[in-house]
Amino acid sequence: MSAHAFVSANLLLAYSAYFVGTASPGPSNLAIMSIASTSGRRAAFAFAAGVISGSFFWAMLAALGLSAVLTAYTGFLVAVKLCGGVYLLWLAFKSGRSAWRPARRASSVETTEQPDTRKLYARGALLHLTNPKAILVWMSAAALGSSAGEGTAHMLAVVAGCLCIGVCVFGGYAALFSMASARRIYTRIQRGLDAALALVFAVAGIRLLTSRV
């Protein structure tokens, strides 16, 4: 196998691993889906932009090799775990509270709610910055994409490609679930979905807080 083919195989493996880790249902994707369905495309893209910014932060650490160094320190992982667990439980509380409220009409969603996009951006960034899964996904992609003798250019290709995948995945969730048809479906299943989200966030938060470092 030629060096070029080996590099390409490594890149494809890294991209595939990152896509699976990013596109699979998780707190970030579920939050984007909920915001898109309740508050519209602008709000969803603001939240997704925050998530992407958090992903970019971990990408830079992975590219510099610092993510592996940080995860070697127990205190850092404990801090991330505690912050992420508490934040997930807060999201669970908000989703549970929303599930108790009467369902809203599709036509009134955007007219009655105009969330602050800056706050949504900050929430998205905070969610991804306190998500240990994001660190591990980037570390895995960096490890799979690396090979003996490859330098900075190769790692930059891994990071750039994975970032593009992340933009497509998170932006795709925001665009898809803010469509009129998706919003109409959401209004019919709003309370059940919010209850399910509360359960998912609560379980994820509790598992994160009780997991071993």
Short description:
This protein has 213 residues and is mainly α.
How many separate domains make up the residues? Answer: 1
Bin the strand percentage: under 5%
List low-confidence stretches: 1-6
Helix segment tally:
10
Output mean pLDDT: 76
Query: Which range best describes the helical content: under 10%, 10-25%, 25-40%, 40-55%, 55-70% or over 70%?
Result: over 70%
Protein model, in words:
By secondary structure, the chain is an all-alpha fold. The protein has one domain. Helix content is 84%, strand content 0%. The protein is built from ten helices and no strands. Helix 1 packs parallel to helix 9, helix 3 runs parallel beside helix 7 and helix 5 packs across helix 10. The radius of gyration is 18 Å and the shape is globular. The protein starts with a helix and ends with a helix.
What order do the helices and strands come in, and which of them pair?
Layout: H1 3-23, H2 27-39, H3 41-64, H4 66-71, H5 74-100, H6 109-112, H7 117-129, H8 132-145, H9 152-177, H10 180-210
Name a few traits of the molecule:
213 residues, mainly alpha, disordered N terminus
